[in-house]
Amino acid sequence: MSSIAVPGALAPRRAWLTDLPVLLVAVAWGASYLAAKDITTARTVIAVLVLRFALVLPVLAVMARRSLRALTAAQWRGAGLLGLILSGIFLLETYGVVHTSATNAGLIISLTMILTPLAEAAVTRTRPARAFLGAATLCVLGVVLLTQQGGFTRPALGDLLMLLAALARTVHVLVMSRAQALRGADALPVTTVQLGAALAVFAVLSAGADTTPWGAAGEFGAREWAGLLFLSAFCTLFAFFVQMWAVRRTSPSRVSLLLGTEPLWAAGAGILIGGERLGAAGLLGGALVLVGTAWGRRAAG
Q1: How far apart are CA 109 and CA 161, in angstroms?
Q2: DSSP states of 252-274 as a string?
Q3: What pLDDT was estimated at residue 153?
Q4: Is the sign of the CA dihedral 171, 207, 57, 25 positive or negative?
Q5: What are the residue boundaries of the EamA domain, all occurrences included (predicted)?
Q6: Residue 228 domain flag
């Protein structure tokens, strides 16, 4: 995202009006794991991803039609590479949530907030602060408890896939922050190219999948269409535009802090709406993950 001048202290009323849409994005993202789990099966993952991106990409393409022409060849390649990574993230997340609980998915993916600073420290060969290492340790312990709440056994496939998704998100952030060609590029066309590249990957994969996008769409009822529109309209399109709007009116740190509440909403949706149960060990593990990520964000800042 291009550098944006951040205004000074906001009046309380204006700050609240800016914070609320960002918080709604965090709520939508938290609920997205349960929504994806509700409308997706192992055989329809790719079909659902094609439909989800196909619904939102034309809107972005129309909005970005002029700024897309301003991208250089290097920026197109950089955004395309990010789109390939993004496709891997969505595949891992969606297959992951099919094979684990929505609560586990939302809590495990929050490890990105810990993994990213650790990876950045490794790349720049700097030593993380002791407080941050303590927070990372707390998160690891939390994930162990979260995935072993039924006794110490092999973690579920979905838990491992969500952990890989958190690693993939970390790679995405690092590539985005270190890609020289993308510095100064407007967020709208870069995001449009990313989603277009990811959609192309899903479209190619769907050719050999068990269920085609059109076949899946034909089997959808009102509930499934509502879930798909929620994922496309709120969790993708609305979320992107709110982030662009909010970061121009408040600080990136404030936006990041509000979006960091996503795992809380994921756990809430899974337990209160999805009827999921964590058990004593799972509740303790989830609490450790939340405390560790919050502590790690402060220590890394």
Answers
A1: 10
A2: HHHHHHHHTTHHHHHHHIIIIIS
A3: 54
A4: negative
A5: 20-147, 157-294
A6: yes
